[in-house]
From TrEMBL:
It comes from Paenalcaligenes hominis. This is NADH-quinone oxidoreductase subunit E. Its cofactor is [2Fe-2S] cluster. Binds 1 [2Fe-2S] cluster. It catalyses: a quinone + NADH + 5 H(+)(in) = a quinol + NAD(+) + 4 H(+)(out). The gene is nuoE.
C-alpha cells in the first residue's frame, strides 16, 4: 500500500457512491486522491490504485494517460495550466503564457529549479469570457490573467497561500 490510510478511506467513500459491480466508476476519483497525496502518478501508484479497486492495472492506466489533469512525471508544488485555445489566444492568452514563461524562466512542460512551479499548456477550460485563463493545481481557476494579476498570483503561491 503506497497511500496513507486516510487516502484509502477517502477512496472507500468514493467507491461507496457506486454499485459494487461498477468499481471502475471510481477510477478518476481514486487517481485524483492519489495524485493529491503524492503529487504525481507513478506506474507503481497507478498499479496500487488498480489493486485497491480490484481492477486490472491497464484499466486504470488508460484513464491516467487519457486525461491531461493526471501527472505521470514529477511536477512542481504548483502546476499552472495556461489556456492557449483560440478564444484565450485572441484575448492575450498566448501573451500571458509567454509572460509567465519569461517570469519563471521555464517553458511549458518544465519545472522551476526550486521545484515550486510547473507550467502546462492546456485546452479550453470553458471560461472564454474571462480569458486569459489559468488553472492552478487543477483546482483554482484564475481569470483575466494579465501581467499584474500573474505577478500577484505568483507572489501569493510563493507565500504558500491559495491562488
Amino acid at each position: 500500500m503506497l497511500l496513507s490510510e486516510k487516502a484509502y478511506q477517502h477512496i472507500d467513500r468514493e467507491l461507496a457512491k457506486f454499485p459494487t459491480e461498477q468499481k471502475r466508476s471510481a477510477i478518476m476519483a481514486a487517481l485524483t486522491i492519489a495524485q493529491e497525496e503524492k503529487g504525481w502518478l507513478s506506474n507503481e501508484l497507478i498499479e496500487d490504485v488498480a489493486n485497491y479497486l480490484g481492477l486490472p492495472p491497464i484499466m486504470v492506466q488508460e484513464v491516467a494517460t487519457f486525461y491531461d489533469m493526471y501527472h505521470l512525471q514529477p511536477v512542481g508544488k504548483y502546476t499552472i495550466s495556461v489556456c492557449t485555445n483560440l478564444p484565450c489566444a485572441l484575448r492575450n492568452g498566448v501573451k500571458s503564457g509567454q509572460y509567465l514563461q519569461d517570469k519563471l524562466g521555464i517553458g511549458y512542460g518544465e519545472t522551476t529549479e526550486d521545484g515550486l512551479f510547473t507550467l502546462e499548456e492546456c485546452e479550453c477550460m470553458g471560461s472564454c469570457g474571462d480569458s486569459p485563463v489559468m488553472l492552478v493545481n487543477n483546482h483554482f481557476m484564475c481569470v483575466r490573467m494579465e501581467p499584474e494579476r500573474i505577478d500577484t498570483m505568483l507572489d501569493t503561491l510563493k507565500n504558500g497561500e491559495s491562488a
